[in-house]
Amino acid sequence: MPNNPPKFAQLYIYDTDNEIINIISQNPLVFILMSHMMHDMLDEQIIIAIKDMLDHHNHYAQRFRMARDKLHSTAVPDLKMKLISQRQTDGRLYNLPTTTKVVALIVGDEHSADKRDIIIEKQSGLLKRIHELHPAYLPLQHPLLYPKGEDGYRLNTPQERVTLHEYFCYRLQSRTNEHQQQLRVDKYINLTGSNDHPETLGRDRGKRIIQPSSFVGSQRYMEQLYFDGMTICGHLGFPDLFLTMTCNPTWPKIQRKVTQSNLTPNSCPDIITQVFKIKLNQLMNDLKHGNIFGNIIGYIYTIEWQKRGFPHAHILIFLHPSNKLPNPDDIDQMISAEIPDKQTQAQLFEIVSNHMMHGPCGFANKKSPCMVNGKCIRCFPKKFHGATIVDQDGFPVYRRRNDGRTIMKNGIELDNRFVVPYNPQLLLKYKTHLNVEWCNQSTSIKYLFKYINKGSDHIIASLGNQDEIKQYLDCRYVSPPKACWKIFAFPMHARSPAVERLYFHLENQQHVYWTDDQQIGDVLSKNTIK
């Protein structure tokens, strides 16, 4: 997470038909999407009470109303935004959202913006931009978080130096530090010219580090993760299992917390994020030490959000050589693709019904999100099979017997052909969507590593008036749980064993790192620098 978080602004958009968005005000950096359904649920008395409270206690409120009157006195064009699904782009990144909720769209790359936009008009008639580090910036940007107009973040607080990232993380917590160094970088050959002035402070040389390959989410970062995964694969052999665990908003930990505030899980992305992190840690502990699939010698996982609302984890598992290449009976012991017996396995039957049934899609529901050109992209419904086999391409075909067991979903009867493969033991413990697949041992390996390291979600939006589309916007798509995950500095990727990357450079062209307060002479005197 960088010191400067993504450039968010106050722009509210109301969804009218799941695609068309009426823009209330305009900002070139970010658009925050707000559903009209949320608008309909607002209590008028609550809004009035909040307005009266701000008018009485917040000294910025009257000034803001002057800006509102100024806006109403001029003609503002009625613009619309439409989210576009284009098959020419990567469908894994540019797919349309399937849930209605507040998100952020960042035009271009999330680090391309220079300034946030809060601009005021002075009495002279000239415009003045409020700097993002000004104490008045946050109370103007988020008045409900600062109801009395208190000062927000400021540099060099007397008690301790807190970064903007740490400040937001602190403010986000519900309640009644560790510091990040400011590093600079330059090449060794450029610093040797400072020998005549060894007392030169670090802040006067080099440049602030901007998006190195270690920067989480950058293209170079994702490419490095792919190479790391292929390196682990070359050392340990092919991965054996591919798991996907999705956050379940009905988990008791989440429900207890949100009901205390009379809210819904969608309104508490911080709670969603923290509980999912706890569950993921427990799952990884079970996989590594619970001997559920045998002895595990390596793993790789990444966290994703896409546009479905809740986080999910993709996990690749490397088993010990003694557990590799099992026969079909061994696969049946680990993975099931059938509906449990409702009488003898009532709890497992309920979990499978709620979380592990695909669709309905196909002829029963041609408008399902998985339907493209009249076919399910997940290849459901599958075919009935009396026993598990491995086909000629090395892909497992799980046992799906025609045993007459069915589950009703959205008024449609589904049988074993619609079951998403799962492990009964893990499903009973975690009570969420937890897909378990046996990996193909040849052609799918590169795809798996590229899939779990494909990068951040994007969306294409068109912006213009009702008669003509004016402009296309390529945007980063940031959901509230993803924003919270980054604010809490939770790792988005993990792997074991560790991979040591070896870097090469020309003579005296290596990069040297130092802090603002270090003297260049002291930096160059270190044995490891030369």
Detailed description of the structure:
The protein is of the alpha+beta class and 530 residues long. Among the domains are: 54 residues, no CATH class; 237 residues, no CATH class. Helix content is 27%, strand content 20%. It is built from 15 helices and 23 strands. The strands form 7 sheets. The chain has a 7-stranded mixed barrel. Strands 19-10-12-11-22 form a 5-stranded antiparallel sheet, with helices on both faces. A hairpin with a 4-residue loop joins strand 20 and strand 21. Helix 7 packs antiparallel against helix 13 and helix 9 packs across helix 14. The protein is globular and about 80 Å long. The chain starts with 11 loop residues before the first strand and ends in a 6-residue tail after the last helix. The N terminus is likely disordered.
Please state the oligomeric state of the protein chains shown. Answer: single chain
Please state the average pLDDT score.
Answer: 78
Could you say which structural class the secondary elements and strand pairing correspond to? Answer: alpha+beta
Secondary structure: helix percent: 25-40%
Main sheet attributes: strand count, strand direction, barrel closure: 7 strands, mixed, barrel
Number of strands: 23
Percentage of β-strand residues: 15-25%
The shape is: globular
- First and last CA, distance: 30 Å
Alpha carbon gyration radius: 27 Å
> What is the spatial order of strands in the main beta sheet?
1-2-4-20-21-5-3
The number of helical segments is 15
Unreliable stretches (pLDDT < 50, length at least 5) are 1-41
